Amino acid sequence: MPSDDFKETVKQQTDIVRIVGDYVKLKKSGAQNYSGLCPFHNEKTASFSVHATKQFFHCFGCGLSGDVFAFIQKIENITFPEAVRLVAQKVGIALPKIQFSSPQEAREARLRSALLDIHERATVFFEECLKRPEGASARAYLTGRGLDQETIAHFRIGFAPDSGFLLRDALRKDFEEELLRESGLFSWKDNSQKDSSQPSAASSPEQPIPRPARNNDHREGSPEDGAPPNKLKAESRELKASLAVYSKFRNRVMFPIANDSGRIIAFTGRTLSTDEKAGPKYLNSPETAIYAKSRVLFNLDKAKEWIRKEYAILVEGQMDCISLFAAGFQNVIASSGTAFTELQAKLLGRYTKNVVVNFDPDTAGAQATERTLGLLVEEEFQIKVLTLEHGFDPDLFLRRKGKDAYREALLRSQRYFDYLIDRARSQFPTRTPESKVKALNHLLPHIQRVPSRIIRDELAQEIAQKLGIDSAVLRQELKHAAANRSSTPITSPVETHITDAEQILIRALASANQMQIAEDHLSARAGVEEQFDPARQARFVLQGERLWEGLTTESLIETLLAAGPDLTHVMELPLSDSDRARLASILLKDAEELTAERLEGAVRALKRKRIRGELDQVQRELQSPGKKDPAELQALLQQRVRLKRALMDPGVADEGSGSSRKRPA
Asked: Is the entire prediction scored with pTM above 0.70?
């Protein structure tokens, strides 16, 4: 675990708006607030806010909140120490030696580090195998695809030999077999089964395998349960001997997949075999502790700087991506042959909001394009679609027609809705009312994905015109359907019954250590009033009168008071989920500046609320049935008079409650 001093240093030098802005498109929504679509749940209306001064985020939709470390930990799916280190790297702070808060956290970090090392070693192994005599067929394949030695080296393309044991034996020297199984590079089968030629259901690569018991394992048969250590060692050796571990990738051209930092985390292997037992044409690594296919875009590590300067070209296959990059289109990325995902759209959105989609023009490619367009539209991308001639994917187009022809094709890319309208008209070519309705129904889901209502209305009119829809009724239905997109702002239910006075006092208490110190010091001569401190004044009043008791925000105010004047990071307080949401909601409001007058007004309002409560109680006692003692009745009547007078004169109410309107010394 990083030291508290280091964490504080990083936090003080970090602007959460800039860090979050790398992941979320933020818009200024107030003096100190920025808002955007939450990256942690699917939403169409922005409910995610970042407070620039308080340096925290909060989502009113899913309820998540926290500081910059919590955000990075969640979005990158890493441990807290790793999040601190990543933020430090982003802001250029030198890193100390990493420490962890628990053995589990340390094990997870060691596993990820080891898997990265294994993948780097495997990449070097495949690169070396490509240069050897057994790599001749792979070299011939790559040459046939138009790749030169420079491109092959740049993308670290390699060859997995036909042997199932060479890679295993090369890595066994430095890595335990359990780590090799975790890497996704190997399969295994249980030799203890009668039919050892096929993996058993219990030991197939898709199933977890039993781990050998260790001396410190608390499980049946452990030394704590009385089993002899020698017996355990024998069982472990027997289990390992029964598992035949072999390479998953054999006789394949290997394309490394890197994360956006350039570390190899997975592979795609293209088979060179032609027999039926060779398996799929393209074989991808399974998901591991370092690889989640829905979160990775192929070549983003090399293309991201070009994408920031220009725009992104999104293709399907890795060969398409490599060929375009080698031809000088260095802003190209690929979805690696898998369906484009919402997480990939969010990842791409960190670098650009301008994209040209160039998928294969066949039926499957067109359907993939439509799905991808839908995700990009929801993330508010500016989208164009490049459709090449039938039968040409980007790689083949480049080899047959050259890079100049591809550049011209890029310039002719269609706006995404022009592409969709053309698709609808080609699928439903007749001009009958029925075909127009079918074309319309095909387009409506795409229209409804568009976040902006103004743009949806414009698209509705354009589509009606291009489809030849002259009926005013039909035009109105189209416009109505386009407008029926959920756009109700998300509000926080925790704000209910929280008065303005409570919110002012909470803002004041949370402002501890947030005062803006003037550059010129105040004069020390007599009669000069010190700078107004809302937190100090609020604590002075509340601690003397306990005005928060019985309020909806009672527990929140008590926690803020208990934190005292040294409160630094307000969102790190030990709050319940509801109180944390209340606090975030109040602080994220674009409220008026805290002044002495506003704070005093809030105090008077709470006093009035207390007096009214006491007055209501006196009235109920006076109206309750039953004969009252004359002295008791007289006391109740006198108390009612005092309370009514207090309500009529706020100044007297302040004095009557025992407070002083002077500021604390």
From this structure: no
